[in-house]
Amino acid sequence: MPRFQHLRSLMVEEQLRGRGIRSEAVLEVMGSVPRERFLPPSQEHRAYHDQALPLSQGQTVSQPYMVAIMTEALRLRPSDRVLEIGTGSGYQTAVLSPLAAAVFSVERLPDLAREAEEVLADLGRQNVRVKVGDGTLGWPEEAPFDAILVTAGAPEVPEALRAQLSEDGGRLVIPVGDRMVQELVRVTRTGDECETEEILACRFVPLLGKEGWESSGP
Ligand code: SAH
């Protein structure tokens, strides 16, 4: 068995199943997406370590366990249209794509967006679109979405994202808190009502933008 494949299986058993990830669909996808492909060459040897890893421009590739928790929390169905904010490396995008009908992903840094797009295309992910822009405003032309995932920490739930959730049980998973520590929450929309559940404490790079943090803030 190739080395990375072996390490990936261990990651799924020890870091994910062993810590309570139950969705077989999520476990299966995470057992097949090559995380090493989304990392800078200097980080490849750490691809299946139990940690977030540095990407270029001060950004990070999320820890596998966090990717699994967030993906599971979205409760995806194969017919779902998904919006992701914070493409970064594209690793999370690659995990979402086999579990949904279409994934729309927004990244504010053009270089990261382009690199992620290239790897995703290389892996044959045809149901993914990546756009450069301020994801706190969502992707209004493609709304509504059955599920929205934000992979950067927000001061509060951006109103534009809430508005772009499907009225019929749309789910938004987002880290909300200060610039250092956040709580991962799931907002479920039914009509004009939103229910919010707390999932776990977490630490993400800041969501910068009109309905996020200011670039030069504290
Ligand atoms: N899911 C990614 C996480 C990347 S870190 C991965 O696992 O690789 C968070 C990303 O959010 C960064 O790439 C950052 O540039 C991006 N980001 C921050 N604010 C944003 C905004 N308003 N719109 C779109 N992307 C944003």
Question: How would you characterize the overall build of this protein?
Answer:
There is one protein chain. With 218 residues, the chain is α/β, with parallel strands linked by helices. Helix content is 25%, strand content 24%. It has six helices and nine strands; from the N terminus they run ααββαβαβαββαβββ. The protein has helices at 3-16, 24-30, 64-73, 91-96, 110-122, 159-163, and strands at residues 53-54, 60-61, 81-85, 102-107, 128-132, 147-150, 168-177, 182-190, 193-202. The longest helix is centred in the first third of the chain and has 14 residues, at 3-16. The mean pLDDT is 97. Bound molecules: S-adenosyl-L-homocysteine.
